[in-house]
Amino acid sequence: MGGAVVDEGPTGVKAPDGGWGWAVLFGCFVITGFSYAFPKAVSVFFKELIREFGIGYSDTAWISSILLAMLYGTGPLCSVCVNRFGCRPVMLVGGLFASLGMVAASFCTSIIQLYLTAGVITGLGLALNFQPSLIMLNRYFSKRRPIANGLAAAGSPVFLCALSPLGQVLQDHYGWRGGFLILGGLLLNCCVCAVLMRPLVAPKTGGGPRPQQSSKRLLDLSVFRDRGFVIYAVAASIMVLGLFVPPVFVVSYAKDLGVPDTNAAFLLTILGFIDIFARPTAGFITGLKKVRPYSVYLFSFAMFFNGFTDLTGSTASNYGGLVVFCIFFGISYGMVGALQFEVLMAIVGTNKFSSAIGLVLLLEAIAVLIGPPSGGKLLDATHVYKYVFILAGAEVLTSSLVLLLGNFCIRSRPEVSKPEAAASALEEEKLHKPPVDVQVDSREVEHFLKAEPEKNGEVVHTPETSV
Asked: Which family does it belong to (predicted)?
């Protein structure tokens, strides 16, 4: 589960690990920044929306939850679209959707309309950009993939550092409606990034035609046969329950303590600044030859570190305490962000990654819909932020234990595979090589050929062989 899978890509072309891949990496950097920073950055407008529509914390938290739920829940749809139309066309349409949603949100007159525009439409647009960009990055990089993932993931904190203060400035000068309108215009840059996603093409060999691309399922469900993938999906779904809760509520927490709005928004900038360096560093460390085979354990440690930070951050009672919390949360959050898709790529490989990431994101979507709103409900009931952070920390800690213990159980299975393999090889040899002094009846041969595939010497793929 922790080892890297090396393959040639869906078209049989070896990953160039450079060249135009750096342009693809830049596009993925921008797309990742918009996709992950946007749901947190809009939390700057929550106080204004509460006053505008007379609603509670949990109602505004649904905007971020729906954005993330669309980013995750439309994963299978994105997989089907990418496998059918390719990455570049899907991303162009997604960029238009993301921009249109925020522009329409600036004209909304109710919170339900905001859910539909800023949540559903913009979230769908970001999803149609995010997943294809990761698929292209995985196709262009192999040996340098961990550091490429770390650099691309750094787009999230970089954009968070920029979008959070920008959102506060836009709200102060133009109100939340003008802010949403300008942010919608910024999202059109996703279309520019889509143009950078040039597909890999197999070169002509000996003047002959290019090799035909093998047919591909629109959604490959065979990844569920891999027990490593199943454990990863379960752990990631539990992690998402609490992972995004602290960034959504930390600004409102500071404002509730009497911190000025600008200083409160600066907390996300601090978190993002630390995150900028944490992600490439985690990617570089994971790429080391002695570390890469154990990337899953490093990912488990990152989740444990993040959950423990949430628990300790629940004791913060002033602005200084929240600053310290954001520093350590930025480190742990950056490690998680840099490793989560690298580990998934290592488990399933390039050929199945487009389907695997869609299925994982779908499973995580349910948790995304539950996480921040449940924290908002808890806050509305208790008016104590401490309990919100404790709940989030407990959920992330649980996910780290699931991943660690699940992977440990797989690796600790009794080593009976070698004797069994030898026995099965002996039986197979007997089946295919009958004794010389025995006459084989034609009816027996016909019966043997009609037997089940697994009895005819073919390899049957099971979770054990996948892992």
From this structure: Belongs to the major facilitator superfamily. Monocarboxylate porter (TC 2.A.1.13) family.
Q: DSSP secondary-structure letter at 281?
A: H
Cβ partners under 8 Å of residue 416, min gap 6 = none
CATH (residue range 219-412):
1.20.1250.20
Sign of dihedral through CA atoms 157, 159, 164, 166? Answer: positive
Cβ 271 vs Cβ 247: under 8 Å: yes
Tokens of residue 192, six digits: 């520019």
In this prediction, what percent of the chain has a pLDDT beyond 70? Answer: 81
Task: Decide whether 15-199 matches 219-412 in CATH topology.
Answer: yes
Cβ atoms < 10 Å from Cβ of 384: 12
Query: How far apart are alpha carbons 131 and 28 in whole angstroms?
Result: 10
Cα dihedral 388, 392, 395, 400 in deg (nearest 10): -160
| d(C-alpha 234, C-alpha 340), whole Å | 13
If phi over 0 gives left and psi between -120 and 50 gives alpha, with beta otherwise, what is residue 201?
beta
Q: Answer for the pair 260, 410: CB distance below 8 angstroms, yes or no.
A: no
Other Cβ atoms less than 10 A from the Cβ of 19: the count is 9
Q: Do 190 and 91 touch, CB atoms closer than 8 A?
A: yes
Residue-wise pLDDT tens digits, 329-386: 999 988 998 888 888 888 887 777 777 888 888 888 777 777 777 887 888 788 788 8
Q: Among 275, 240, 265, 235, which residue's Cα sits nearest to residue 392?
A: 240
Instruction: Domain ranges for the chain, please list them.
Output: 15-199, 219-412
Residue 67 sits at the vertex; the CA angle it makes with 64 and 73, to the nearest 5 degrees, is 130
Average pLDDT in the 204-209 region? 57
For 15-199, which CATH superfamily applies? Answer: MFS general substrate transporter like domains (1.20.1250.20)
Distances 142 to 14, 135, 466, 467 between C-alpha atoms, Å: 8, 12, 20, 20
* 225-274 pLDDT, tens digit each: 888 888 888 998 899 888 878 887 888 888 888 888 778 878 877 887 88
**pTM for the whole thing?**
0.69
In order, the DSSP letters of 366-426 are HHHHHHHHHHHHHHHHH--HHHHHHHHHHHHHHHHHHHHHHHHHHHTS-S-HHHHHHHHHH
Which amino acid, 274?
I
Kindly state the percentage of the chain with pLDDT values over 90.
22
- Residue 454 has what DSSP assignment? G
The one-letter amino acid code at 19 reads: G
